[in-house]
Amino acid sequence: MPEATWPVPRPAAAPGRGSGGSTESTTREPIIQEPVPPRSAADEAPEPEATRRTASPAESSRASRGWWDGNADEYQREHGAFLGDDRFVWGPEGLDEADARLLGPEGSLKGLDVLEIGAGAAQCSRWLAAEGARPVALDLSHRQLQHALRIGGEVPLVEADAGALPFADGSFDLACSAYGALPFVAEPVEVVREVRRVLRPGGRFVFSVTHPVRWAFPDEPGPEGLSVAASYFDRTPYVEQDEHGQAVYVEHHRTLGDRVRDVVGAGMRLVDLVEPEWPAWNTQEWGGWSPLRGNLIPGTAIFVCARD
């Protein structure tokens, strides 16, 4: 099984978004989850089957939307404290944009139009707004965006497909994605190409994903997660499917070279590749991420790209 993509507390996953409409959310939701009556054992759906098989762009998108709509509440309950309401964290290591400044030096974001892709509850966008930027938070999952409304703020929210951005050419100065969309789409080069289209000349796109080397290791935070268990070069998607064979979760693997070729193939220029080290202050485990593994192998890769 491949390494989990942050920040989902289960094998293979992250704030991934697939396809959908381009409607803007306009209503506030005050609670995380409505009470539901207890379910009997007979009502419980069978556990999905984990397998490796091909998955089309449409199937991947449909699975991502369903998975995130169904798991957004649990995710926000479990990880909301680490993410904060208005913090910009690039990955489970805890690298903060306030320190890293990968989008630009302190003070340089004021007045800039910024698109956040795979925004979840829009924590990063709130941080951007506090820096004086004009962010737009986009996500595939309606339920994740309801959590953004629950937390509040004035950030515009858009429910849409990262591969078909509902914006005019040259609408933004910057784009960013902290584990959003790219691990879950069958054709990530199309997402990068769309981002380039909506960026203005001189714009920057910074995105983080699970470090590709993790695909070869089991998704375990302890010593058992330190031995290679699969081929790094096997690009067959990781799929969880229901009893009818329908994908309910899909994650696509790209090698480090594949990611670079996606960036270049979309017409962007790679400026930097950041591999955050695990900091001493971070003692928590998050899925397969842990201090033990983080001190030995990289967990996150951050690509800093420019639109010339």
From TrEMBL:
Keywords: Hydrolase, Methyltransferase, Transferase. Residues 1-68 are annotated as: Disordered. Residues 115-207 form the Methyltransferase type domain. Residues 11-29 have a biased composition (Low complexity). Coiled coil: none annotated. One of its GO terms (molecular function) is hydrolase activity. CDD domains: AdoMet_MTases. Transmembrane segments: none annotated. It comes from the Bacteria. Residues 53-63 have a biased composition (Polar residues). InterPro entries: Methyltransf_11, Methyltransf_Superfamily, SAM-dependent_MTases_sf. GO terms for biological process: methylation. PANTHER family: METHYLTRANSFERASE, N6-ADENOSINE-METHYLTRANSFERASE TMT1A. This is SAM-dependent methyltransferase. It comes from Streptomyces wadayamensis.
